[in-house]
Specification:
Two copies of one chain form a homodimer.
Chain A (H helix, E strand, L loop, with lengths): L3 E4 L14 H9 L3 E5 L17 E3 L2 H6 L3 E3 L6 H6 L5 E4 L7 H9 L3 E4 L14 H20 L7 E3 L2 E3 L3 E5 L3 H12 L3 E5 L6 H6 L3 E2 L18 H16 L3 E4 L14 H5 L6 E4 L16 E4 L2 E4 L9 H17 L2 E2 L2 E2 L6 H6 E4 L2 E2 L14
Parallel strand pairs in A: 1-2, 1-4, 2-3, 4-5, 5-6, 9-10, 9-12, 10-11, 12-13, 13-15
Antiparallel strand pairs in A: 6-18, 7-8, 14-15, 16-17, 18-19
């Protein structure tokens, strides 16, 4: 029997990605894996069914799941979807392991082996499976475009017959994967960029992209590339330092997001009120409540002429490449679980052990780590 | 008596520019000119009244106009506004000289001297007054951002742990001022760019920006940098050549706009239907009906997954810099009309003679030129 991988159509509103793109499907089928995909699963990421060769297309979700050995998804399976999963199968997707404990219990109770893409360890061997990074990179690029698009002025310097236009000043807070990609993109567009991160280790990366690194007399770098939480005194100092840079900026892009935790409030209402009308804040941390006090998740707020944009599910706005990168991450993760055409996962493997949320009727992961994302505490 | 320049608030819906920015107002007042401005005229371009020093602020439009020697506007004065203008005054703005003859007659009948920014001759002495160019440059930049923002994929190449993302292919049609700025901006974002213009003289400019120039065995360059109209056979040949490049593009930006005339239809429905779902067309010529057969002015059309965006008044979307550049153009034009603190225009001057729409009870400009914009016939 070949391994059967099922790929349903995503059901969460606004989710435009698909867990399997045609290129990756082809790699699997060439390796003898059977792909069962729900009809139109790739439509909203512009991969029509006709782009997939040699796979089984099924209309009904229940049928897609019915005989699956492995289910690949983008969004966590809902309670209803979990009921459709064959007992004992493996499901791999984002799992939001810090939210909705009922979902995790439901996975456990059906004896599902659930791997959470958020939990893939950030070690070099697993880089090619790191979906948090691949999707954060897309969010950073898109965040930079949003800033340019919402701004009332040019980003690049422009020399014209009627005089010179000065380049915009853009401040980027958080120099993790998305922050660095935002810096690179804003620099490409020709703006002057300042960037800030509590982890001094990011200084060199920021500078190598042509941005100025804002210094705080604190270093909060911590274990495994993550940042520790700042003390109250340090936070106060941080806000004081940022206030002047925020008020001078044409655009601010904030990326201090921590999956499963409330985002740190780095920009207060008072700071926004010192910005010029026409300035823009793109809050890429809005999913966790936002880095700006005025952010409303999924909305665009106009506060005295300052635009505060709080987009949700940003990677989904570039569904072609977000799906491409995500499905490659899944493919690479599955490679360490397959040998001789059969599923032979070694659950002691560091990557698999770290990623496992539920297995053998047990919850394997407890949300004990205080900080799980490399952006900011 | 000092020269009195009046600047009303724009009344056309969606017009966010203002004809006088604080920097330019300061230059005028330092030269002894009196500025009378309508309250909140700069608000929608983020220049609050408090940014202007030493000017008279007046609430009512009629009062603004009442004692003006010169009126500066962005959009053409409406018939109602013309009634408010003091007889014999000078008004300078965009005039859409090919549209609404009633407006032009009304200007004549009130003995207004109307200068049309569209008619400023494209000679080197008048480059700093060339508002068509300054605003086209802004439209080209914004058009490139729109293309990147509507696209379902990355523009730059991206090398990641999970593999490489190929750069997007962008086709830009028309290599006038806006087309060249679009090329430059899309190149900055890292996409591969092809560009096409009927005027072979643009080839070198296109290539110097790092784009590939598409060749047609026709050269339609004509007098004064403008292009002649193509023959039917040439048009057929042009569409055949373009069809393959359009179908392979991630994004197409069209800039073949001709003020006062219907835009040439360069992209047919059949061509759109050969594009991949998720591809984007930004039609910067939508004001004149569009370069794409499916364009709807001011709307976004989804045709089998291809997005066709037909934005109107694009410069107004970047009101800060559009106003800044436009008001500098006006300032430079006024410089040749002012001597010793007095209005002393020499109406025989090539620039003034060329720009004059009505004067001394006569219509001075007849729309005889077949092609008035440098983009495409």
């Amino acid at each position: 029997m070949p391994i059967r991988i099922a790929v349903p159509k995503e059901t969460v509103a606004g989710e435009r990605r698909v867990a399997m793109v045609p290129d990756v499907a082809e790699k699997f089928t060439k390796a003898g894996v059977q792909i069962i995909m729900q009809r139109n699963a790739g439509d909203s990421s512009y991969f029509p069914d006709s782009d997939y060769d040699d796979i089984a297309l099924v209309a009904d979700a229940a049928e897609v799941y019915a005989q699956a050995d492995v289910v690949l998804k983008v969004q966590p399976p809902t309670i209803d979807e979990i009921k459709l999963l064959p007992e004992g199968c493996i499901v791999i997707s984002f799992m939001q392991p810090h939210r909705e404990p009922d979902r995790i219990k439901a996975l456990r109770d059906r004896n599902i082996t659930a791997l959470a893409m958020e939990l893939v360890p950030r070690i070099s061997r697993a880089q090619s499976m790191d979906a948090l990074s691949s999707q954060a990179s897309i969010a950073g690029y898109k965040g930079a475009l949003m800033a340019a698009d919402h701004a009332a002025q040019f980003f690049p310097m422009l020399t014209t017959a009627a005089g010179t236009i000065r380049p915009a000043k853009v401040l980027i807070i958080g120099a993790g994967v998305s922050g660095l990609q935002a810096i690179a993109t804003v620099r490409r567009l020709g703006a002057m960029v300042e960037a800030y991160d509590v982890r001094k280790v990011t200084k060199e990366q920021v500078q190598s992209l042509g941005a100025k690194f804002l210094e705080l007399n604190v270093d909060a770098a911590s274990d495994g590339g993550y940042a520790r939480e700042l003390t109250e005194a340090e936070k106060h100092h941080e806000r004081d330092m940022l206030a002047n840079h925020v008020s001078a900026a044409t655009a601010v892009i904030t990326t201090a997001a921590i999956p499963g935790r409330v985002s740190p409030r780095l920009i207060s209402t008072a700071m926004v009120e010192r910005m010029r009308p026409g300035a823009v804040i793109i809050d890429l941390a809005s999913e966790g409540g936002g880095n700006c006090e005025l952010t409303k998740a999924g909305e665009t707020v106009n506060h005295n002429g300052v635009i505060i944009h709080g987009p949700l599910n940003v990677p989904s706005m570039l569904p072609v490449h977000a799906s491409e990168m995500y499905s490659r991450n899944l493919y690479n993760l599955l490679q360490i679980m397959i040998a001789d055409g059969e599923l032979k996962p070694d659950w002691e493997d560091e990557v698999l052990a770290g990623s496992t949320l539920t297995r053998a009727g047990k919850i394997m992961h407890e949300p004990t780590r205080k900080v799980v994302e490399g952006e900011q505490p």
